[in-house]
Amino acid sequence: MNWTRIIRTRVSEKLTWDNLLPSEQPVYVSSLVYSFGVFTLSSLVFCIASGVIMASKGAVWYQSGSEVAMYFRAVHFWSVQAFFFFMTMHLVGQFFMGSWREGRALTWVLGALSFGVSVVEGFTGYLSRGDFFSQWNQVQSKDAFNGAGMDGFLNILNNGQVYGLHIAVLPLILILLVGWHLVAVRAKGVVPPYQARALGKGGDQR
Amino acid sequence: MKTLVFRRDTLRFPQRDFDMVKEGVLSLSVAGVLILGSAALFGAPFRPAVTNKEAALSQPVVVMQTALGDLDGQGAIASYGPPYNNGWHGVAQSTQAIGPFAPETWWGTPYAIHTANADVLQPLGMLATASGNQTLSAALKTYERAPYGQQQQWDQNLSTALGKARVQGGQVVIPPGQYGPVALMMKDELALAKSGLLSGALDRETNAGPYRWNVQNDLLFLQGAVLTNMAGQINMQGGQWGINHDEQAYPGPWWLTPYTALYQMPPWNTLPNGDQLAAYTMGLMFGLLVVLPFIPGLNKLPRVMGVHRLIWRDWYRKLESSDACVECPLRATCRQEFRAGVDVAPASGVPACYSGRDSQDMPGNTPGGVLHAG
Fold first, then answer.
1. Bigger pLDDT: B351 or A3?
2. Are B268 and B146 part of one and the same domain?
3. Are residues A136 and A54 in the same domain?
4. Confidence class for position B4, pLDDT limits 50, 70, 90
5. What residue numbers bound the domain in which A76 lies?
């Protein structure tokens, strides 16, 4: 068994340029719902870009009151709001389309995991604001993290750990998951519509 | 002949022109205008964190009660249990468990805090040394050398008295009583907090050197009544959907709504292990979301709900208006699928009306853009 050959064959079958950068789509891909995914990605780009700029200057900078720092803080805040809005719409839309059908279960699983990681990433971000919201939610959430048994790994009152999780560990996991999710989407293509049902029974074609 | 294992079934369908790069750039631009514009117009919320100094100035009695609870071992953190300590005389008061299942206790006390030493005796000892305060030094020695029963008696007497204390001209007035050295210790603890030096004293305990990453002891000192009172004033307590909303009119982390909702209803907001139950409930709900494609019944739900008819309305309308069955090799099945009074799907699972056989005739098709996969 040649692992290299197997990987090369699978990748070249699934990830052709036609699949990765399609210039055609099935005609049924015609709805606003399809834009939520790409808007989620676009918002994520702004989350990462503003986050990297803030991280490069350090946590004290964005709590300093400097107008430039406050603006990047606001960009990060609104990009996160946009990210969660579009991601939630994307999730709901894909649910109604039953988009795990015809061999796309992995795509759904990866997307749902990305959502979960995003929630934790968002929470560690809220705890890294360094304001009353951080302080209050940090002491409030400690009982849940401790009670669930997470205290073996996580001290939610240790800002060094929370900040490290927020700017490195969780973003890396999220980017990997989202990247894999995208490859899965492109490899299988967009899920086809449910089959048309009988008109007399209020069929799909109405 | 080599068989292609992977088949892209979306190629069964007629294709239309699509520019992925252009769509990406457009989306990035629209998102950019929305995000950068909102940031410029609205800014972002920021309410400065509460310091021990502010707490001492605004709630002096509560700060003294907190310090006294840390000293006598009956305060919320002093008696918490793992991961901070072993609780009140070895019995954890805040450890949550479902029957014998208490994973909180599995790791021992990795974030150990002995509140009497950490919050009171050590900071006051440093204050006495730094200021050359012989009276405070003597009071600390008296307290530390007294038998445990005597210490508890003084603590209990002062605890009762603080319930009747008044604040006059910024000073806490306590009725006369048998408090031993504890009244002076608590008065100096309050003064230390008012000066702004208490935070530094607490932060040095959870950090190995001058770098202050871990603010555990500082936050644990404030975490009880002090912060709860302040959070209540701006509707941010747990029972007020606290974590769900941000400052004033700004949107908060609304995606935590299902989690926050649990805290508004029994049993999560009534049971002593409510936090543990809420965490596991959310874990379970999230697990269901992840494995939704594999749950019989639930994975068929979207078809029954029928929202897809709205999402793909153009597609279904085109199939109907173009009389897509006319040229279909599976014409009989196709017509039955569209016109019959019963729900009929071809046994093969291939969509009868858009199998791709005659997709040149399909609406929206572009010449040369049709691909077939068998």
1. A3
2. no
3. no
4. very low
5. 31-97
Tell me which amino acid residue A78 is.
Answer: W
- Residue B281: give the domain boundaries: 234-290
Assess A10–B contact: CB distance below 8 Å, yes or no.
Answer: yes
* Tens of pLDDT, residues B71-110: 999 999 999 999 999 999 989 999 999 999 999 999 999 9
Whether residue B258 lies inside any domain: the answer is: yes
Do A160 and B5 make contact, defined as CB atoms within 8 angstroms? no
Q: Which A residues in the span 119-158 are in contact with B, Cβ-Cβ below 8 Å? A: 119, 122-123, 126, 129-149, 151-152, 155, 157-158
Write the CB contacts of A104 (distance below 8 Å, at least 6 apart in sequence).
A184, A188, A191, B293
B47 belongs to a structural domain: no
Domain contains A151: yes
Q: What is the pLDDT of residues B258-281, one digit of tens each?
A: 999 999 999 998 999 999 999 999
Q: What is the pLDDT of residues B129-146, one digit of tens each?
A: 999 999 999 999 999 999
Residue B116 CB partners (closer than 8 Å, separation 6+):
B70, B71, B72, B73, B78
Name the domain count of chain A.
2
* φ, ψ for residue A139, nearest 5 deg: -75, -30
In chain B, how many H helices and how many E strands?
17, 3
pTM: 0.87
Number of inter-chain CB pairs under 8 A, A vs B = 332
Which pLDDT value is given to residue A31?
Answer: 86
